[in-house]
Amino acid sequence: MGLNEEQKEFQKVAFDFAAQEMAPHMAEWDQKELFPVDAMRKAAQLGFGGVYVRTDVGGSGLSRLDTSVIFEALATGCTSTTAYISIHNMCVWMIDTFGNEEQRYKYCPPLCTMEKFASYCLTEPGSGSDAASLLTSAKQQGDHYILNGSKAFISGGGESDVYVVMCRTGGPGPKGISCIVVEKGTPGLSFGKKEKKVGWNSQPTRAVIFEDCAVPMANRIGDEGQGFIIAMKGLNGGRINVASCSLGAAHASVILTRDYLNVRKQFGEPLASNQYLQFKLADMATRLVASRLMIRSAAVALQEEREDAVALCSMAKLFATDECFAICNQALQMHGGYGYLKDYAVQQYVRDSRVHQILEGSNEVMRMLISRSLLQE
């Protein structure tokens, strides 16, 4: 609804790719914890490696609304893999937007083709929601920064080739933070054990550790002290992206539930004839569409750089990730005992969408950002 012909076309491309290249492998990627490099590179051939990155460095140059449409469609095929692709896109956008021309042309082309993969490094063991208190240091020594510290819960950690790292080059607080690109293989860069997670199993999660890690000053993105601003601007889009992945999980769960109600019989008739379940399905579909409209409205505000964009992105992330998880969970309930079996995809959508209420700023932090915006008016 509400899409122009071009948007409908790349939405169809994304849905087809999800159905043919992702959904048939989703359960295997989850159960064997496989990082589907080949599938993601196929997605990049369709322009999904740098969706909202400028075209001169290999990006697709699409809008935030276009991006949301694509990530929702891809997430119906595998929410976990799409969520990683969305994080990768955020990293490429940060380099494209805040990097100089040399950095843009060095890093963005291989990232847009997903020949190389990127990870976003902000969270630390002692600073999650309070990101401005991060401790990873970057001290200047000649023409290099020497990094020391560690990052936690890093998607793609150990597998990615490029790490967009927020670190402290100055004093305490947000103004002391800078953004530095660290490449895999740099001496002093290492990784923790692969975390065992409830969901998001098609992407590895590890700590990223810096021990006297020397990185050229030429790898700094933007000015010294600009890192926190870069991180937050990246997260505004990241919140739209992860909420769009929740949409995809809920979208798929509604379809699975509709189909299940039509074939499953109890008390001599299909479950679809039960009015209570009909009403539940109607509620699920309504909440899905409400979430979608909220996300798309926020995406347009972000694209237009409106003053209310931060609040709308926070509202969309809060509302949609809560509602879409509830939709997936209700879908599992309506599948009965079968919904709890790993032979049925609905349980994976539940597991993969649950973390969206925590990351890219927890939903409690979203409430804080929204209330701060309201109280400042």
From TrEMBL:
Query: Where in the numbering of this chain does the Acyl-CoA oxidase/dehydrogenase middle domain appear?
Result: 120-213
Listed cofactors: FAD
Indicate whether Isomerase appears among the record's keywords. no
| Keyword tRNA processing assigned | no
Q: Give the matching Gene3D superfamilies.
A: Acyl-CoA dehydrogenase/oxidase, N-terminal domain (1.10.540.10), Butyryl-CoA Dehydrogenase, subunit A, domain 2 (2.40.110.10), Butyryl-CoA Dehydrogenase, subunit A, domain 3 (1.20.140.10)
Any matching Pfam family: Acyl-CoA_dh_1
All copies of domain Acyl-CoA dehydrogenase/oxidase N-terminal, residue ranges: 4-115
Per UniProt, residues of the Acyl-CoA dehydrogenase/oxidase C-terminal domain are 225-375
Q: Which UniProt keywords apply?
A: Acetylation, FAD, Flavoprotein, Oxidoreductase, Transit peptide
Family under the similarity heading: Belongs to the acyl-CoA dehydrogenase family.
For this entry, the protein name equals: Acyl-CoA dehydrogenase family member 8
Species: Felis catus
Gene that encodes the chain:
ACAD8
